[in-house]
Amino acid sequence: MSYKDYYEVLGVSRTASSDEVQKAFRGLARKHHPDVSKEPKAEERFKQINEAYEVLKDTQKRGLYDKYGPAWKAISEGRQPPPGAENVRFDMGDMGGFGGGAGFDPNDLQSIFEQMFAGQVGGVGGMGGRQRRQRATRGRDLESVIEIGIEEAFRGGAREIGVSDPATGETTRLTFRIPPGVRDGQRIRLAGKGAPGARGPGDLFLEVKVVADGHFSLEGDDVLTTLRVTPWEAALGVTVSLATLDGEVRLKVPAGTSSGRRIRLRGKGLKDADGERGALYAVIEIAIPTELSDRERELFEELAKVSEFKPR
């Protein structure tokens, strides 16, 4: 009885690992994809490659195929195998949990069904009863990570990403919206953008990683921003404009402020798990001029002579 040798189709040995099977599939799928290959039978070849991969990537299907060859599909669906299948023999050892080294035996069907459909509602009847077929499955859910800036996490907005097809290597551009107030570690679900399946595609889940951007960095749900002031502003005090996630505000820097001091603005950070906003901290950095005019140098020297401040 003729049958398709799926191992030969993918060009792998019968002892190939799952990773080896997947690697071979990806390479052949890219090469023979109808949109890429100019060969006359590229589409037919591409279908054979996909058919072989669908069987060999699945431990259960592969076990049946290794033991029963062309009869594997009929057996998996609870049907009588085609005539002549009983003469096909494989010696693959204990593959897929179904035993090995034997030809097809109709009396073996019941134990196979019990293994395949164990735990399903209603179980499986005898050979004379109605058999349950395996249900078509929905495509796998896929996961990925996206990095977004603090301002983008706060305001939300449209974002575009590229999703690669592992079979063809082609990249599809997807546009989606980031909800305002999304938090680090949250997941965004893109329905129907996962792997294809007989009952429709799965979903794509994007795990959000909020990262520092521009003037802002993150510390839990609190936002930090650096505020640079001059030595005399730090000593005498000053009111300055400060950029926040909500726009600019006027901030008073108290007299005698040291470098590294944090000035807290309540409710100006990101939302926490309870929906309450954290704080924004303006971290003071005293900026020293790298070049001094003659007059500036004169004033600093005079200050050095008269000041009684001892920093150490």
How does this model look, in words?
Helix content is 27%, strand content 23%. A hairpin with a 6-residue loop joins strand 2 and strand 3. Helix 2 runs antiparallel to helix 3. The N and C termini lie far apart (94 Å). About 16% of the residues have low confidence.
Keyword list:
11 strands; three-stranded mixed β-sheet; 312 residues; four-stranded mixed β-sheet; single chain; alpha+beta
Distance between the termini: 94 Å
> Hey, roughly how much beta strand do the residues contain?
15-25%
Radius of gyration over C-alpha positions, nearest whole angstrom: 34 Å
Name the overall outline.
elongated
What is the H-and-E element order?
Answer: HHHHHHEHEEEEEEHEEEEH
Number of helices: 9
Please give the largest β-sheet: 4 strands, mixed
Structural class: alpha+beta
The average pLDDT score comes to 78
- Which bin fits the share of residues in helices? 25-40%
Low-confidence stretches: 86-134
How many strand elements? 11
What is the assembly state of the chains in this entry? single chain
Strand order of the largest sheet: 6-7-11-10
TL;DR of this structure?
By secondary structure, the chain is of the alpha+beta class. Helix content is 27%, strand content 23%.
